[in-house]
Give the backbone structure.
Amino acid sequence: MSDTFKGIDPVRLEVIRNALVAAAEEMSITIWRTSRSTVVREILDFSTAVFDAQGSNIAQSARIPVHLNSMSDCLRTILDRFIPLDQWNDGDVIVTNDPYSGGQHLPDIQTFRPVFVDGERVGIVGTLCHHVDVGGGAAGSYYANATEVFQEGIRIPPLRLVDRGVLNTGVFEMLLHNVRQPDETRGDLNAQIAALGIGERAVARMARKYGSASLAAAMSAILDGSERMVRAALKALPDSESSFVELVDDDGQSEEPIRLVVKIIKRGETITLDFEGSSPQVKGPVNNTPAMTCSAVYYALLAALGGEIPANSGCYRAVTVNLPEGSVVNAVFPAPVAGRMVVNHRIATAVFGALAQIMPERIPAAYYAISYVYALQTTNPNGKRQVYFDIEVGGWGGHARGDGASALSCGLHNNTNAPIEMVEAKYPVTFTRYGLIPDSGGAGEFRGGLGLVREWRLDAAEGSLSTNFERFRHAPYGIGGGEPGSLSRTTVTRADGSKIPLQSKVSGVPLKAGDTVTIETSGGGGFGDPARRDPKRLAKDLADGLVTPHAASRVYCAEQDKEEAA
């Protein structure tokens, strides 16, 4: 850690830090207002960030940690392996989506633009958008049968999409010719390019106002400040070792559970997380690369340490992550990774489980821990193809101070729900049910939040459904005697009334007009012994319909009777 903070006026430093965050937020608003697809405009599956002149993440919008914690890794890979900094020109836009070039999965297209003032590079701005489709074996590019990354869509190596301000139309059109929704992809990519322009101008204004050298010093001090805060938070914790094991249902191509093992060693103001003992990389498309895994680790640590630490690359300096090569948390090329959030969420809950042994008062029981991604492909009467893409959420775990939140997006993916009115207006579906599932939260002194049910009927002549779900076999764990949350399930009800339960990860399930798809997500785990639940809380749950009388008598009353008898 350097001494860059010394000699910098702290008030000016805070002004600059907030101005950099504001630049990232301006970029975020630009994408939101100008994008075309529902996955970007409504679900908000995108992120924006500002980097220093060397590629360290300095400031970010309040968007998606799994993106933001990895964008600097992607940028660093580009600089080290593909396009060195001295080859970046004013007006360039570098693009990639390659997981093995520092990216996430193929639908996540990242773009970066340098910021120059008077010929000097003073920073870099970046965006990441989840695109509704990038080709591959299934609509939405979540192909459950993929066994290598080549089957998941088009891979974009780091290259210039814009060269000195001139769009490379050949590359742009090549991308559009390989996706199922070219109009939406065109609109979303243009939104990313526009946002980079907004960010570039904002950072350039700061450099002109404060001077390039002063801005660089402030950026360095911002990184040092976050590092200092992380180290202080770690130092306040007792030195200790803990471990935790999570089981993921499967990879979609076998019923073999995937084992995630994490050992945490906390010493002084540093922390090490070792994933030795985790399952080898799997055949199906749920593997994680190091950038993905570390994103989940950093998210879990920063969430546990508290929200007052400004998130940037400085936060990671006190953290060491050991990932065995060839494992599901450090997959090697060409392993498929499109469904990486299946494992990524559970990396976070594994870390939370280990941290609960060190700081039990801060860690909740497990949340639903999966991005319930599904895609429906239909064809309009005019022959035009449509892809309806959506992401659902579930319940949070109970914690030491209260019940878990119901149907709330986890901070790791931080998505919003797509309004059903908007979906019905754009796609050939009609929603028949959308609400909370009673009794889905794990019982406890503090109950887990409830999962949700989202059910829709297909109105087109036919369609094809793909899902990337989880928690069908291994429920969210409880803590301190709390019970696990509910399991998830998906059911197709044919027009004739027959019901077909689906596996968690499927591609190309045929649907006909009148078929209904019912998606039920998991509730969170409970915290503490159910026998200790406040009767007033239970009475309110019953009145609100969150817990049924049957469950109340079976779980809470039975546990309270046992405690009284003891």
